[in-house]
Design a protein that fits this description.
Layout: E1 8-18, E2 21-27, E3 40-43, E4 46-49, E5 52-54, E6 57-62, H1 64-69, E7 80-85, E8 104-114, E9 117-123, E10 137-140, E11 143-146, E12 149-151, E13 154-159, H2 161-165, E14 177-181, H3 184-194
Antiparallel strand pairs: 1-2, 1-7, 2-6, 3-4, 3-7, 5-6, 8-9, 8-14, 9-13, 10-11, 10-14, 12-13
Length: 201
């Protein structure tokens, strides 16, 4: 479980194939001292396992599904990725609960500066819009963000300079794929309401 507060923008040092899996090696000097082999790390919002740690670099394998359904399948050597270590009991929840399981990828429509903010916009696929509401939370590239406006299928988010400066969004361009995770709490509420689980009477 994660909270969507990015701890470091890491750099992809190496990509290779091992035993039928794609393997990435990511440089992460800031968080390297806090992780150990077997730990979960969110990489652009995708929960991966740190299988091996060598100095400031951790190695993780990507399944075929992960490569196909997230933007990690298009990682390149030298690319920048958002990193967050898993929550520990007692940690502050600075954002909102994220599972590290991506619901879909969306193409960045625009990233425009407007006054002191930057507007990020993308279209949410049919069937997922019910999990998005104005002023609600959504995970974008592993970042906990607030939906400023939801109009038809377009999600609009206002980014403060700190978020842009401390995440990989500053390297994104229109047309790039973004990993999106909708609010897991909305899914649970929907499931229970659909099943008629309104609590005891």
């Amino acid at each position: 479980m994660f909270s969507g507060i990015i701890e470091e923008v890491g750099k992809v040092k190496k990509l290779s194939e091992e035993g039928g899996f794609s393997v990435c090696e990511i440089l992460c000097p800031k968080i390297a001292g806090d992780i150990k082999e077997g730990d979960s790390i969110a990489v652009n919002g995708v929960c991966l396992t740190a299988e091996k740690i060598s100095g400031d670099i951790f190695k993780a394998s990507l399944s075929t599904q992960t490569r196909r359904e997230t933007n990690l399948g298009s990682m390149i050597t030298g690319g920048c990725v958002n990193l967050e270590t898993a929550l520990k009991m007692g940690d502050k929840i600075g954002g909102h609960f994220l599972t590290g399981h991506i619901d879909f990828t969306a193409r960045l429509k625009r990233l425009d500066r407007q006054g002191g903010s930057v507007i990020l916009a993308f279209d949410i696929p049919r069937g997922f819009e019910r999990y998005a509401v104005n002023r609600g939370s959504i995970g974008v590239e592993g970042i906990s963000l607030t939906i400023a406006e939801l109009k038809n299928s377009e999600v609009k988010i206002f980014l403060v300079p700190f978020t842009l400066d401390n995440t990989n969004l500053r390297y994104r361009n229109p047309g790039d794929a973004l990993n999106i995770e909708v609010d897991i709490l909305a899914k649970y509420v929907e499931k229970n309401l659909s099943a008629g689980n309104y609590g005891s009477r």
